[in-house]
Amino acid sequence: MSTLEIRDLHVSVTGQAGESREILRGVDLTVAAGQTHAIMGPNGSGKSTLAYSIAGHPKYQVTSGSVTLDGEDVLAMSVDARARAGLFLAMQYPVEVPGVTVSNFLRTAVTAVRGEAPRVRDFIKEMNGAMKDLSIDPPSPSATSTKGSPAGRRSGTRYSSSGCSTRRSRSSTRPTQAWISTR
Asked: Looking at the chain, which terminus has fewer C-beta neighbours within 10 angstroms, N or C?
């Protein structure tokens, strides 16, 4: 069971002209195992900055504070170590990669995290169970949600309840959202 703890996090971002601007000023958040937090606010309030800084994007500099996952210092981890620990950003509109199905993409991700490839039959059962748990409709024979490319699925569908992902609204009048959840 994982617990993500963010304490007094201050983050600056470097602009195109090279100037540094503080975006986050003392964020505190605890996400316990099994919880999902939807962080909402107007554009420019720091939701994406929080997600990017947790994921380790080089444009975002943590100037003070801490981020720990089960007591381990996330800020000291490399980006790929953070992803293996379950902290990553998922794109809402990923680029389609012809020939790469969602199920193959997910199986490759599971293999990277677990260190060995799951048997195909076991993985399909696990994926279908996760889809049921997340109330994702099973694909029809003509649907692309698990047979097509990752970008071919309907927008907003999340295939994993772990990690960190951001989701933007299409309307500028609605607040955007950042989803943070733990395994």
From this structure: N
